[in-house]
Amino acid sequence: MPARKRGDVLTSEDGNQYQDNLKRLFDTDEFEAIETLVIQLFGLVGGHLGGATEALLANDATIAHDLIARDSMVDELYHKIQRFAYQVLLTHVPGEASMRYLISILRIIPELERSGDLAEHIASRALRGITPELTPRIRGIIAQMGQIGVKMWRLTADDFADHLTTHLDTVESLDDELDDLQVALIAELASGAVSIPVTIELALIARFYERFGDHAVNLGRVLSGLWGRE
Questions:
Q1: How buried is 72 (Cβ within 10 angstroms: 0-12 exposed, 13-18 middle, 19+ buried)?
Q2: Are 68 and 120 in contact (CB under 8 A)?
Q3: CA 148: distance to chain centroid?
Q4: Cβ-proximal residues to 216 (8 Å cutoff; 6+ apart), any chain
């Protein structure tokens, strides 16, 4: 039988066998531990985005400082998972399911870490005195971007924890909405609604939210391959 190429669809028999092997992985301490740590990382990053939006809109320096300080928790957990995954790869003889899972984890966690950085970047803007200049329309757009970003993250985290890709289409649709909001915010800034320094900061913030959405989509697509739905 020729080797299956990237993008080939699993047959029913192959798919069922892969799913059975994948389920058995989580009966082992190593893979259960990795799973738990990644779920924790999803939770940290999603919480940081919601908090960053709140800090920015409320002009709350306390929340912003706390989120910036806690970004190190994301970095530490990322490196812990990375070391653990490499250790398992080096000390076990992996089958197809375990190899696919570990490689997927090593693709997932950089997306999570970068998304945590984006949340930290948004929180840091709450310390730059830009909030009082926000017009009601700009505030509304930022609030919507924050809500959509958190929703995308929650749906993607649910798919990881449930070993499904139920929400991928919804996440991709929400990403389109986020892109539209970015365009709307840039158009509002182009009208001269705020000062040039604040315009520059808000253009960056719009980009941070847009990139956050892209990371959620990327994660969903990796999960599609991991759970055997490609």
A1: exposed
A2: yes
A3: 12
A4: 115, 149, 152, 153, 155, 156, 171, 175
For residues 92 and 198, give the distance between their C-alpha atoms in angstroms, rounded to a whole number: 53
Exposed (0-12), middle (13-18) or buried (19+): which is 202, by Cβ within 10 Å?
buried
Instruction: Look at residue 27 in the predicted model and tell me its pLDDT.
Output: 67
CB contact at 8 A, 98 and 31 = yes
Q: Which residues of the chain have pLDDT under 70?
A: 1-16, 18, 22, 26-27, 93-94, 228-230
Burial letters for 148-179: b for 16+ Cβ neighbours within 10 Å, e otherwise?
bbbbbbbbbbebbeeeebebbeebeebbeebe
Rounded to two decimals, the pTM is 0.87
Residue found under tokens 């705020």 = 194
**Gap between the Cα atoms of 18 and 97, Å rounded:** 6
CA 139 → CA 5, 124, 157, distances in Å? 48, 17, 27
Take residue 117 and report the two structure tokens written for it.
Answer: 């950085």
C-alpha 196/C-alpha 214 separation (Å) is 27
Query: Which alpha helices (DSSP H) does the chain contain, by range?
Result: 12-25, 29-58, 61-91, 96-125, 136-162, 168-190, 196-226
- For 188-212, the pLDDT digits (tens) are 999 999 999 999 999 999 999 999 9
